[in-house]
Amino acid sequence: MSGYESFQVSQQASEQLLVLTDPQGQITYASDGFCQLVGYNEAKLKEQSFEKLRHPDMPKGPLNDLWKTLGRHESWMGMIRNRTADGKDLWLDAFVTPIADNSGNIIEYQAIYRRPSPLTIQRTQNVDHARGRGKRARLCSGGR
What we know:
PAS, PAS-like_dom_sf, PAS_fold_3, PAS domain S-box-containing protein
């Protein structure tokens, strides 16, 4: 393998954003690219639940949908708002798949991420804002 080919393989590996968790959400593996992006090493990530990476302003609706979908043994796609080790926003386009054993029991979740475009992030924020505003409007009108 030439030096250039080796560099390309190394660069591709660092860009892969893959995380494996156990059924309770405890991180069991994180790719180098994911670790670099969030600012934690893999050992530090393995000490915590994936929920610790969630941004406090991440709406509950998409997360509830994620877990309901995974509970049906189906894959889920959507935008996730996390935060890095230094507290910065980190939007990721996620594809999460439950992995089951031969008996049908979920043994882990595999999450593959990619960095979304700024336009995709803006659209997601607009939808989240509209959903939040609609919820508050219903609450203020007595639920009508």
